[in-house]
Fold this protein.
Amino acid sequence: MPPASNAVAEATDLLRARLRELDGERAKLERALASLTEGKRGPGRPRGSTSSSKGGTRRRTRRGGTRAEHALKLIGDRPGISASGIAKELRIKPNYMYRVLSDLIKDGKVRKDGRSYHPA
């Protein structure tokens, strides 16, 4: 039978090891709880997005005017340009450009001839 002091030392070591394990598990659980309750975002907002400019990436802004104004200028400069050509110049998707151009046609600012656009 081992001496009592040796058994106490082994028990103490085992208890300390288990406490270290539990401390690690508690830290993980606290982080999980904090991520669920603190700083809650609305649906669809990615982690790290902020409404302020501190620490987050800033949104790219358009330089001077609307998409329609930019499209009108391009059509004026290059009559007969296509919607995809305008979209490439403005670095936007062509499907969005078609929507902008249809509004310009309705307003009578642009006319369409086949696939090309001309000033009205």
